[in-house]
Design goal:
The longest helix is centred in the middle third of the chain and has 23 residues, at about 270-290. The protein has helices at about 5-10, 60-70, 140-155, 155-170, 190-210, 210-225, 245-260, 270-290, 310-325, 330-345, 360-385, 395-405, 430-435, 440-445, 455-460; strands spanning about 85, 95, 105, 465, 475-480, 485-490, 500-505, 520-525, 530, 570, 585-590, 605-610, 620-630, 635-645, 650-655, 655-660, 665-670, 675-680, 690-695, 715-720, 725-735. The protein has about 750 residues and is an alpha+beta fold. Strand 17 (about 665-670) and strand 18 form a beta hairpin. The strands form 5 sheets. Strands 11-12-13-14-21-18-17-16 form an 8-stranded antiparallel sheet, with no helix packed on it. The two termini are about 45 Å apart. Helix 4 (about 155-170) packs across helix 5, helix 5 (about 190-210) packs antiparallel against helix 6 and helix 8 runs antiparallel to helix 9 (about 310-325).
């Protein structure tokens, strides 16, 4: 079992605090109501100031036409095909025009369109032997030398560059980041804001040689060192809060970036000051974390922590150490580099399961992969090797696919703890992984996303990439590791209105205490919105929220973590059994979309997922759940076969307006002008739809005193309630597609789950 903070530090103050991801609790909405104009969802903040318009790779025909006229196809940059022309209204996910090319990296030596080879090629790389030129981290000087020309010829690099400049200007107009200790649970938010600013300021300086950006970076560094009027945090070695070591790591990375990228501009006194600050508040605490004398558990994450904590913490220590190696006369940097790489190989590198699934949650994937990619890229650029960090676990090559499949047309399949604020954590690790693993589809997917404009993207993106990421990519994927066991199914990769269904089984332990009690949980998108979805995080500061994943953990007292807060079956009004060990069957027609965006699934195109989740319940003889796509991926059938010795409650959370027919067998869900019809087919005696508020049941044990559930405004629970017994519940979900007549929809025959096949349903 993975290490848990509460298991090594017997206190109720969690180190996750309000920031892993930095806490901005979910509103409880399953999906925002459809706004009238295109804008960023209130649920998602990528750390880009509201005043700055995020440019999502908009490519105008004039630009592409000019480039096509001046260069032949083999030398034109990648942006000329499958580039997003706008973004969708809820989550700024990209919208695409038609395209006809497959994903590839175009072979060219033209320096106007491709990165040159790194001249630093050591024959025997060592983490403590670094390149002689600066910068060392992420972006060596040879890349800076050609970047302006690449920007001039690539619309993505050009748009990202403009956005970074705009962000830097906005940050520049703000005062230095103020100290704020969040309820005893960390300074991670402000640490990541400082890192975000340092990246932008340093980038803009290197592109302009305007020293005002060096001065502004220095002000930010002086502020976080406590050297400005008013101070900043405790006046001792714990200033950067090493008890919540993520904070320390991110600030150490920020100082390392500033030191390295602006190295030639710092005076000797400034260099000495930065090195001292980094060692005093950052790296020395890293040595304590790795030592046997760690009374405050700075380094609990160094042992059996296969998740984002290990990745982020080791990365910060590594970037800081690489930046000052050779200038650090204390030997601290050299000592740490002898430990962080090995430790990350034993922990961080094992975070993805064998199929690429991030074992914490899809949201923690952002933090973990950002730390992993930064560390791998920094080691590679500074020392000439990543020391197998991306290779020791084959699941890391697949974790980009995990992210691509967990993203629906509206949002993530956001099971478990999934917080919205990311700051410097983005999905731009896909750009690094695309290069490293020679997977152009990873880069093509990420380059149009709203979080793509970032200094790292400017050096990880390969402008020779071209094509449609979805060409040849299956619409369905089953992630079959026993810990997660989940499937993703859709009708299109490039249509914002596509049908998307994701469902999970999996174990209910060993997720770094970030999961819910949610075997059988599912989400469904269609018509540009989410119809059944997740409530997200609970209150990270609530009593016992991260205590453990044992059956009696206080975590399971909170509605959003309880079984009743998920889209699954509740038996006896009790939580699921944390020792659940489901088994799953999955099959798919293997449909791929091809290169064009205009796609209608052919007849016979379908997929299904069946999970025996009997072991997740205490009062059942058997319980299996199946879900499948019907009618050329335009309808969904959810079927449960239940033999229970306690009450049965089928539950699904929605923020649609729900209208139930007089018979109780049809529920009409409405969001804006869109509707989904939900029918209970072949109903058992007494079965009908009702609705409930998204609040705890009256029979639930109370939450800890002073720790109420968060409200879930606007959320309705669609319910089927039955006494103990044996039942088959067949729920048909039919989005009302524009221009489609009612006669085009199907009502499937009743087929037992053990007889499901690819041909058993229309």
């Amino acid at each position: 079992m993975a290490a848990n903070y509460a298991s090594v530090n017997n206190t109720q103050t969690s180190p996750y605090g309000s920031g892993d991801p930095y806490y901005n609790e979910s509103t409880g909405y399953v999906t925002p109501h459809r706004p009238q104009v295109k804008k960023t969802s209130n649920w998602i903040k990528f750390g880009v100031p509201a005043a700055i318009v995020i440019i999502v790779g908009v490519v105008v025909g004039a630009v592409l036409g000019t480039r096509a006229a001046n260069k032949n196809a083999s030398e034109s940059a990648a942006g000329s095909s499958a580039a997003a022309t706008s973004c969708n209204r809820l989550y700024m996910l990209p919208l695409y025009p038609a395209t006809v090319t497959v994903p590839t990296f175009v072979s060219t030596n033209n320096p106007d369109y491709a990165w040159p080879q790194d001249p630093f090629q050591p024959s025997n790389p060592n983490p403590t032997q670094v390149r002689s030129d600066r910068p060392r981290l992420i972006a060596p000087s040879y890349k800076w030398a050609v970047l302006p020309q690449l920007i001039a010829n690539d619309p993505y690099l050009s748009s990202w560059n403009n956005t970074i400049f705009g962000n830097a200007s906005t940050y520049n107009a703000l005062p230095p980041v103020a100290y704020y200790y969040d309820g005893g649970n960390g300074i991670l938010d402000i640490a990541r804001q400082i890192k975000q600013r340092v990246k932008a300021f340093s980038y803009v300086y290197r592109m302009t040689n305007d020293t005002k950006w060096v001065d502004r970076t220095w002000t930010e560094l002086q502020n976080a060192a406590g050297n400005l009027t008013g101070g900043w945090g405790p006046d001792n070695s714990t200033k950067w809060n090493p008890t919540h070591f993520l904070d320390t790591a991110e600030l150490t990375a920020a100082y390392g970036i500033a030191y390295d990228w602006l190295y030639d501009q710092w005076t000797s006194d400034q260099k000495a000051s930065i090195v001292w600050t980094m060692i005093e508040y950052g790296l020395s605490n890293g040595l304590i974390a790795y030592s046997s004398n760690d009374p405050l558990y700075f380094g609990w994450w160094t042992n059996n922590t296969e998740g984002n904590w290990n990745c982020v913490c080791n990365n910060g220590l590594t970037m800081g150490s690489l930046a000052i190696l050779g200038d650090d006369t204390s030997g601290t940097a050299q000592q740490l580099l002898s430990m962080t790489v090995t430790n990350a190989l034993q922990n961080c590198a094992l975070a993805p399961s064998s199929d690429g699934t991030w074992s914490e949650t899809p949201d923690y994937w952002y933090f973990g992969t950002t730390g992993h990619a930064e560390m791998s890229a920094s080691l590679l650029s500074a020392t000439g090797s990543s020391y197998q960090l991306p290779d020791i676990n084959p699941g890391f090559n697949l974790t980009s696919l995990f992210h691509m499949y967990v993203v629906g047309p509206g949002s993530l399949f956001n099971y478990g703890d999934t917080g919205p604020n990311k700051f410097t954590a983005t999905a731009n690790g896909l750009l690094f992984y695309g290069n490293y693993y020679n997977q152009p589809a990873y880069q093509l997917f990420q380059r149009d996303q709203a979080d793509a404009p970032d200094p790292w993207s400017m050096f990880w993106y390969d402008p020779t990439v071209t094509g449609a990421y979805w060409d040849g990519l299956a619409l369905d994927y089953f992630f079959n590791n026993n810990t997660d066991q989940w499937a993703s199914m859709r009708s299109s990769w490039a249509d914002e209105n596509a049908l998307f269904v994701a469902i999970k089984a999996g174990t209910l332990q060993n997720h770094q205490t970030h999961n819910d009690l949610d075997c059988g949980d599912f989400v469904m998108d269609a018509l540009g919105t989410r119809w059944f979805g997740e409530l997200g995080d609970g209150n990270y500061n609530a009593y016992g929220y991260f205590e453990s994943d044992a059956q009696d953990s206080p975590r399971w007292l909170y509605y959003r973590k309880r079984t009743e807060g998920q889209n699954t079956v509740l038996i006896g009004a009790q939580n699921q059994n944390v020792l659940a060990a489901p088994t799953v069957q999955f099959d798919s027609s293997g449909t791929t979309q091809g290169p064009t965006t205009a796609f209608n699934a052919p007849n016979g195109s379908n997929a299904y997922f069946i999970a025996d989740i009997s072991s997740a319940y205490f009062n059942v003889t058997s319980l299996s759940r199946g879900i499948r796509l019907l009618n050329s991926r335009t309808q969904v059938l959810l079927q449960d076969e239940i033999n229970a010795q306690a009450s049965v409650m089928w539950r699904a959370q929605t923020n649609a307006t729900v209208s139930i027919s007089n018979s109780g067998l049809t529920a009409t869900l409405t969001i804006g002008t869109q509707t989904v019809q939900v029918d209970l087919l072949n109903p058992p005696s007494g079965a009908q739809f009702t609705t409930m508020d998204a609040v705890r049941l009256s029979t639930d044990p109370p939450t800890p005193s002073g720790n109420p559930d968060q409200p879930n405004p606007g959320v309705t629970v669609l319910v089927i309630s039955l006494p103990a017994g044996t039942y088959t519940l067949e729920v048909l979900m039919t989005p009302q597609w524009p221009g489609v007549s009612s006669t085009s929809y199907v009502t499937p025959s009743s087929v037992p789950l053990n007889q499901w096949s690819l041909t058993s349903h229309p």
